[in-house]
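hey so i finally got around to running the thing on that chain from the lab meeting. sorry it took forever, my laptop kept dying and i had to restart like 3 times. anyway pasting the input first so we r on the same page abt which one it is
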Amino acid sequence: MPPLLRASPCVFRISNPSLPGSAPFFLPFLYPQSRSASILSGLSDNPGAYNRRIRRGRGPSSGKGKTSGRGHKGQKQHGKVPRGFNGGQTPDEVVHGVRGFENVFSVDMKPLNLEKIQSWVDQGRLDPTKPITIKELAKSRCVANVKDGVKLLAKGSEKLSSPLQIIASRASASAIAAVEAAGGSVTTRYYTPFSIQRIIKGKTDPIHSLESQIVVDGTAGQKDYPIRLPDPTSRKDIEYYRDPAHRGYLSYQLGEGQGPSLFFKTPGTGKFVAKKVRTKAASAAENRIW
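ok and heres what got predicted. didnt touch it at all, straight out
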């Protein structure tokens, strides 16, 4: 190891301390400094910032044993075993069959109760004077890991005291009644998993889309964002957000007495065509050649 090179202390006296800007310039030279010639050989990372890779299969001296933690002999030690393998006998999936199924139409909604929203308002983490959307809920950490949307539930509705304008994916009937009883409003609108990610990143409007007419601050227009918020395309989603009972944002499309269904027509709205009754004489007259 090379010897340490210690610099002798250098002291400079300021002849005229009243000069402006002279003291900061000479400040580094007022104290003795010592540097090591081998400073680069002493550099190291912070404790815990680097973990050594576990090197298996290097013998007993590696600290992981002779068999690298796998044990002695057998298929699990020599290779991999397929899932559900019972040593060669008939697998359980064949003997007993596969029960149940995976619902591809299910959605993963993040539940949100009214008592938590009121608690966030009391702590100052949510502004009750502005609309509460997925963007504000995620930014304030009121909800996290939102996949398909947020569903508003009525647990702790007796604690709700602030009139709030909440815009969520879905809402229960009791939650809607509790918010409206406190002087607020609930609007349900359609979101996709990708649109939720863009809303949290600030690339998409959390409220307005091409077919929405949600009034915020006296306006119902769409603001300038690089990516547009989508509207529902499947019949199931369209019927849900057309229903006034769900406070859907597409309920303005319904006429008077019209239901949200796209398949069943409201009685009295369709056209009735009377069926003509043909007599034998009329049919015989049509069949004559001359």
